[in-house]
């Protein structure tokens, strides 16, 4: 915890000019004396913290709370209005799609632009150029303008640049939500490698589990201000509690949040081929979780996920339809999503099932139903007396 400070964010404030509506009559235009009038919108408000060597530092907060703006200032892509960012190490940045790359320039030109923003000399870039292109896996497209790239190609190139500037400090904004599973895996492996090297990572993600698991410290932004900082476990719990409090708690104990264009209305548990919904089953049963949904409009490329959590708070599993490549072009009207688990290897206890429907990037939440179903698992086969799941061990005594 006592590593050297590698980045200091010092009373950083960033505001944007938001134009008021344009004059739509000559009279208004004259009244405004031809000037464009604007309001100042403060996206990051007097934020200060230090990041130390060898730590994974998380930034959490709701959409629009200023995380990306803060990270862009830290990466030198945006200039703050007040305050400063002091960087003491070579930095790489994987920011949200659109930041750092210029759409009209080619991939190759963007490599030069981006790497030089990140502090590499032209000569060094030339030496690394082939590595970067090879790492990106898109050599055939490197002389095309990046505006023609798919989001996957874009992220690959951005990642290749960020990794190859040999950064001591890496800034990552939600990039894991984009790209395929094997690419995400590769990124995560790189992060672990980085951290083990004693390098520093600054991470924005919606995935509260990776904040808890990966981060050493974190800050929580709310309307551009820091509302909490410190231990990621405590911070995530406070944040989650806060988010839940803002949403409607329902009579059956479930809690709903999300924008609501599609909603899971109920979840039923069916056991061993029966069509009668129940609230309990046994270890080893064949079960079906049947999710009923209703949508008020057509949802493009929705991803449906469930989570099963023990009463003690262990997240046992959280599969989703995107991981298995099952993403329809659209989902609309009312219907059913069935999740079949041929052999339920949960051990006796009480479990909560949560559901969610998100967009393809899993960034926008249409619906999240916390405790959509609470069910009990009774002793079955195999029978074990400890833990949450059975791994069906085979014993051999010699
Ligand atoms: N270039 C910009 N011009 C005007 N407003 C912006 C700009 N970039 C971000 N904002 C606004 O600043 C706020 C914070 O945005 P952002 O930093 O992207 O938040 P987050 O990453 O936490 O979702 C939002 O209200 C957003 O609309
Ligand atoms: Mg953002």
The number of helical elements comes to 8
What oligomeric state best describes the polypeptide chains here? single chain
Tell me the distance between the termini. Answer: 46 Å
Q: Work out the radius of gyration.
A: 25 Å
Poorly predicted ranges: none
Tally of separate domains? 2
Strands side by side in the biggest sheet: 5-6-7-3-8-9
- Assign the CATH superfamily of the largest domain: P-loop containing nucleotide triphosphate hydrolases
In the CATH hierarchy, the third-tier topology of the largest domain is known as Rossmann fold
The whole-number mean of residue pLDDT values reads 87
Largest sheet: 6 strands, mixed
CATH class of the largest domain: Alpha Beta
At CATH level 2, the architecture of the largest domain is 3-Layer(aba) Sandwich
Number of extended strands: 20
């Amino acid at each position: 915890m006592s590593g050297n400070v590698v980045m200091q964010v010092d009373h950083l404030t960033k505001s944007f000019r938001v134009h008021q509506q344009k004059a739509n009559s000559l009279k208004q235009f004259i009244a405004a004396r031809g000037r464009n009038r604007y309001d100042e919108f403060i996206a990051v408000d007097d934020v200060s913290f230090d990041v130390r060597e060898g730590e994974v530092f998380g930034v959490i907060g709701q959409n629009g709370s200023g995380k990306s703006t803060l990270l862009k200032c830290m990466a030198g892509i945006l200039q703050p209005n007040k305050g400063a960012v002091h960087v003491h190490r070579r930095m790489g940045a994987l920011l949200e799609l659109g930041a750092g790359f210029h759409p009209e320039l080619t991939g190759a030109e963007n490599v030069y632009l981006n790497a030089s923003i990140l502090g590499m000399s032209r000569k060094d870039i030339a030496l690394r150029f082939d590595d970067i292109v090879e790492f990106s896996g898109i050599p055939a497209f490197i002389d095309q303008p990046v505006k023609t790239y798919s989001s996957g190609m874009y992220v690959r190139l951005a990642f290749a640049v960020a990794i190859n500037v040999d950064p001591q400090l890496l800034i990552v904004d939600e990039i894991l939500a984009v790209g395929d599973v094997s690419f995400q895996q590769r990124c995560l492996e790189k992060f672990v490698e980085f951290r083990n090297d004693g390098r520093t990572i600054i991470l924005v993600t919606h995935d509260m589990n990776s904040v808890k698991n990966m981060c050493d410290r974190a800050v929580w932004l709310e309307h551009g201000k820091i509302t909490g900082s410190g231990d990621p476990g405590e911070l995530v719990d406070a944040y989650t509690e806060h988010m839940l409090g803002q949403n409607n708690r329902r009579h059956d104990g479930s809690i709903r949040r999300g924008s609501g264009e599609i909603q899971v209305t109920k979840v039923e548990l069916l056991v061993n081929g029966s069509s009668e919904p129940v609230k309990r089953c046994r270890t080893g049963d064949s079960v079906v979780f049947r999710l009923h949904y209703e949508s008020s409009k057509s949802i493009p490329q929705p991803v449906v996920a469930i989570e099963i959590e023990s009463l003690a708070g262990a997240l046992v599993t959280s599969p989703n339809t995107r991981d298995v490549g099952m993403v329809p072009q659209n989902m609309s009207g009312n219907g059913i999503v069935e999740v079949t688990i041929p052999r339920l290897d949960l051990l006796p206890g009480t479990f909560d099932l949560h559901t969610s429907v998100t967009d393809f990037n899993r960034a926008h939440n249409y619906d999240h139903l916390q405790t959509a179903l609470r069910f009990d698992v009774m002793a079955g086969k195999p029978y074990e007396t400890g833990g949450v799941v059975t791994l069906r061990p085979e014993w051999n005594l010699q």
